[in-house]
Amino acid sequence: MKMEVVFWVAVIAITYSYVIYPCLCFIFARLFGRQPEIVPLADEQLPDVSVVIAAYNEEHCIGERIDNLLAQQYPLQKLHIFIGSDGSTDATNTILSRVDHPQVEIKLFPGNRGKASTLNDLLALVKTDIVVFSDANTQFAADAIRQLVAGFTSAKVGAVCGELDLFNHGVNTNKDNLYWRYEQFIKNQESQLNALLGANGAIYAIRRQLYLPINANTIVDDFQIVMNIARQGYRVTYHRGAKAREEVAPSAIDEGKRRIRIGAGNYQAFSNLLWLLNPSQGWRCFAYFSHKVLRWFTPHLMIVALFSNLLIAGQPFYGGFLLLQCCLYGLGIWGIRQIDKGHSPPWFVTFIAFFLRLNTALMQGFVLFSRRNLTGTWQRTSRS
Q: 328, 309 in Cβ contact below 8 A?
């Protein structure tokens, strides 16, 4: 009887996080949700804004990134760009040293200390009220900064998260597009409830006075920075009109390494942000537990479901469940191998493979975090 309870708790927890919670979030957002209206601003209303980018070994894209920022539909005299190279060992520093533009300030840091330390140093240089964060390999839509700034019309808003579209080099689409759109849908509902959790580091903005320096070993800096702002009582909104594009890792190996490190960063964030589990946080506590905590511990729940199922498989009903689990895992492993070979298995197999790969990386991230030797130094993902 006890093993049956353990089995069902694990299964229901996974199902709740991935299926039931998004439905509840949608319903609650319709019933109780509301966020400040975003009103476009005329040129004379636009404030001075700073863009901050921490880079490491980005020789293939850093020049294009600067051009992209300078081409924004934003009064150039009001745009201030800060780029910090954190001990880059390729041609990044050479490229940045050649930049000669009054609106661009370059800082070449001698050692590779990590993104968090670089961001802390760059923010100390910023004087504007609004700061936009992005990555070196991101490309903003022409009006992206203008859209982000419009999100601060209400004084209650402390951070605005834009929408990132991912694509694969050469095909202009993202192989994980369905899951990505699913996540964007959830973010939009959470924003309506003032329960948005973190931001995407490729495109978000904050009020400068709300920035709190982050620890040097912080991995998911965007999540930590924005949650620090939420803790101060300010709203975090999701603005789908502020758009950016970014290329995903060109290989499953590179993408896997990135997911493992982010997974380790998630558990690091969990240990640092226990205050989010306080019911006094209202909708944000509900969203954090449902969307983040249960997701982060899904690989553990999957293991619990499998082994508890093994112990009660003598009962025909649970024997059927065990067979179903084995079939799903078998399909997932086969799908991963097919995808790695460049083949395209059926969509449902692709989904199972993605889910299995995602949670395998999370578990590896948990092991990495458990070693307690996380550093903030860069683990750059290769790009085409």
A: no
